[in-house]
Amino acid sequence: MHQSGIPDDFDADWDVDLGDFADFEFCHRDPPGFLFPCLMKFDLDGNDQIDINDYAEFQQSMLGP
Ligand SMILES: [Ca+2]
Ligand SMILES: [Ca+2]
Question: Model-level pTM?
Answer without folding.
Answer: 0.75
